[in-house]
Amino acid sequence: MGKALEEHIACPQPGCGSSDGYCTYQEDDGSVVGHCYACSQSHRVSGNGEYIPKEKPMTESTPREMLMAPISVIADRRLSEKTARKYDIGTTTVEGKEYRTFGYYDQDGKKRMSKVRGPNKCFSPREDSRCGPTGDTKAPLLFGIQSFKPRSNTSITITEGEYDAASYFQMTGFPAVSVRSSGQAVKDVRGNYEWLAKWKEVVICFDNDPPGKKAAREIANMFPGKCRVMHMSEFKDANEYLMKNAASKFEAEWYDAQAPKIDGLITGVQAIMKLALQKPQKGISTIWSGLTYVLRGIRLQEVLTFGGGTGLGKSELVKEILFGIMKMHKEKTGSIMLEEGADRTVQCYIGKQLNKRYYLEDVEFPPEEELLQAAEVLAPYMTIADKCKSEWSEVKIKIEYMVNALGIKYIAVDHLTAIAEGKGDNVNGTLHEILEDLNHMAVSLNCTFFCISHLNQAANKNYTEGAHVSLRDFYGSGAIMQRSNFVFGFEGDLNGEKIEKNVRLLKCLKDRNAGDRGGCKVVLQYDTETGRLNEFEPEEDGVFKDANENA
Fold this sequence. Notes:
Elements lengths: L2 E7 L12 E5 L5 E5 L5 E4 L5 E3 L27 H7 L1 E6 L2 E9 L5 E7 L14 E4 L19 E5 L2 H11 L3 E3 L6 H7 L1 H5 L3 E5 L4 H11 L6 E3 L8 H6 L3 H9 L13 H8 L12 H7 L7 E6 L5 H16 L3 E5 L4 H13 L13 H11 L3 E3 L7 H15 L3 E5 L1 H6 L5 H18 L3 E6 L23 H7 L2 E7 L10 E9 L9 E7 L4 E4 L16
Parallel strand pairs: 10-11, 10-12, 12-13, 14-18, 14-19, 15-16, 15-17, 17-18
Antiparallel strand pairs: 1-2, 2-3, 3-4, 4-5, 6-7, 7-8, 8-9, 19-20, 20-21, 21-22
Helix pairs in contact: 1-2, 10-11, 11-12, 15-16
């Protein structure tokens, strides 16, 4: 350094905050340079005494450093030097190409990141190694945050781009910050939520395009009662209003910003009548007339949950229902069976078509031609999830793919308990989340789920010896009661002491639709020769009577 001129003065560098770390020196060529020992930044002092950031050379060998480019008027965006300085927007030229820098600071005024923008609006280092973000690129940051302090009587405006925040401030004089992009908007806002919540209100001013509108909706939901969303009618963003000399129009539209509309509210005579005139959905029949009666047919947009003791054949029950849908109605089905391999699931369905449990070692294996014929009948309507982990995120992806890509409307999930247990100790809470998702997907995707749930062994009932199943016996019974359209208990006696060994009782424990079919029973019998579950008429009414007494 040259001769010291001023020592221990406040640093003018935005974001530094040092009150005594800055000194000025006179170089041998007569120029004056300032250096801050707190932030390690150097500045060139102009002839009129203004402090100008000293440009760091930008080279191919050091493309990722946080560049400090000189502050000046940004003519192509009609931004003044005052605005550029407030937001730390710098401009430099390297090898005949103009680059622009945008400084990102945290709430404490410390510079955390810099974005470098090259010619042709290039932000990607893949196109130009000098471009892109540098510094702490993972931190949630708001551009311009260092220039404003929260005030409970003033609004803060959030824009989608750096130029837009600066343009808004220049046109109105009011505080504005920007997210890094629409894709990072939610993260940036969440990371600075407490700072934003201190303002009187939050006004969202995002681009008029699908990503911008989506991000605006998500952010608006974070500030209920104190958020407005601006609709720009003439131009796409705030900077365009500035460049088109439409500041007064922009300000008027800012004041006209409205509280966000809440999706899913139906009002008005026409909207009400449209729904009132919709006729009840006609359900498709099941393979058993008794179950068709209880359900009034299988309708879309429903969740059906089945629970029973281990070894009673809950999986076979659900597969029999889906097999009937395939055979009787030529409808596509999906099977997510988490406790058996895809080969066993396929063989069970093919076996039902052949009326033969050929997957057992002591049963004659059918000729390949016979298997092919059965496969040709069922394959158009049968999709099996293979090697699916008991993780709800993976199961959910498979469901969405089945419905959206393959057009499947009827899906078996076996079983809910395995998914919930894989999420930790709070099985009931996890089941509630899963069933809430299933209920939502059933409506939004227009499909129906057949779910299997295990029973709570803490109830101390011998479910495999004829004990009756109640709603409270289900794992996560509260969630199942709330989120299932129908809940069925599946009962039987594997010893055959109270009930014939191969007889099963399917009992409706909950009927959300009408309520009048709750308590109805469907008696089934398992055919050990064919592997089929068939409707069964008991010879006496007391076949299941008082099975609970000795459980």
